[in-house]
Write a structure and sequence with these properties.
By secondary structure, the protein is of the alpha+beta class. It has two domains: about 80 residues, no CATH class; about 200 residues, Immunoglobulins (Immunoglobulin-like, Sandwich), CATH 2.60.40.10. The protein is about 35% helix and about 25% strand. The protein contains seven helices and 17 strands. Strands 11-17-16-13-14 form a five-stranded mixed beta sheet. Strands 4-1-6-7 form a four-stranded antiparallel beta sheet, with helices on both faces. The radius of gyration is 23 Å and the shape is elongated.
């Protein structure tokens, strides 16, 4: 009996060690940040993907940024210069059970560890001699859960005015607006759109309507599809802060795994907007676009 109990406790201890193999892990790193392990005296450069445990130390440089993920799924960003003890950072988060966010964090780290893909697309696609085509950075046919959609496209050199046309299923024009940037926010709750289940998007040059993006179709989800998604999405949202770039990346990974690429794009762009000085967020977005063949 004593042997059985000892074996049981060894298994439990091993399982605990496996589940808690790190306290924090680095998702995003900007600047000359350094770390020191508990058993070492030498400081080493911080790299994305490395992990820290109780007893380790981090040194944040001037004008730097370090995005950390706790083993529970909670995130924290260090922006102020100084030396930080991992045990203190962990105590600030407190005792947390491993949440649903941990599942999507693992997906993020898997993409970080992969070798970045190379896009086959040029910024401007040239066809039939000198004719140019606008590359709208969206799937050609996709569904969206959220009601706000960000349209972006690769700008054409020398051109600064574009026309965004939104049509219904029968190609009746619902909205047509000009923009002087390569970005347009589409609100599907507008009176002209809120009764539509399918929208057709087209971006063209004001100066030459023959130069355009082609037609991209966006469909809303059915009530049944929304209900299934919300069963996992709502608990995830309760765990994370949507005002954090790190948490926007986690939310994007949820949408990507659900093949809701339009919603994932929105989250990546939000992450970039919240922390425009951190190049890692732009790199994550670019890698996402390339691996999903959108860029």
């Amino acid at each position: 009996m004593r042997t059985i109990l000892i074996t049981f406790f060894i298994i439990c201890a091993s399982t605990a060690c496996f589940c808690q193999d790190y306290v924090f892990r680095v998702m995003v790193n900007k600047g000359s940040n350094m770390f020191k392990k508990e058993s070492e005296t030498k400081w080493q450069p911080v790299k994305k993907g490395i992990s820290f445990n109780i007893g380790d130390w981090i040194r944040i440089a001037n004008d730097a940024y370090l995005g950390l993920v706790h083993n529970s799924g909670k995130t924290t960003a260090l922006k102020n210069p100084g030396v930080f003890e991992i045990s203190k950072l962990a105590s600030e988060i407190g005792l947390q059970k491993k949440g649903i966010a941990a599942k999507y964090i693992e997906f993020v780290f898997n993409t970080i560890e992969q070798k970045p893909a190379v896009s086959d697309n040029n910024q401007v696609v040239v066809t039939r001699g000198a004719e140019k085509r606008i590359h709208l950075l969206l799937p050609s046919n996709a569904k969206a859960l959220n009601r706000i959609i960000i349209l972006t496209w690769n700008p054409i050199p020398g051109e600064n005015t574009y026309v965004v046309t939104v049509m219904g299923i029968f190609e009746d024009i619902l909205i047509q607006e000009e923009t002087n940037t390569n970005r347009f926010m589409l609100n599907m709750d507008l009176a002209a759109l809120n009764q539509e289940n399918t929208l057709i998007i087209r971006v063209s040059l004001k100066a030459n309507a023959e130069v355009h993006s082609g037609e991209h179709v966006i469909s809303t989800l059915s009530n049944n599809e929304i209900e299934v998604l919300q069963s996992e999405l709502l608990p995830l949202i309760q765990e994370i802060s949507q005002e954090s770039s790190l948490d926007q990346i986690i939310l994007a990974s949820f949408y990507e795994q659900q093949d809701l690429l339009i919603d994932a794009i929105y989250c990546y762009l939000e992450a970039i907007q919240l922390s425009p000085e951190v190049a890692d967020y732009k790199e994550m977005y670019d890698n996402f676009m390339i691996r999903n063949k959108l860029k």
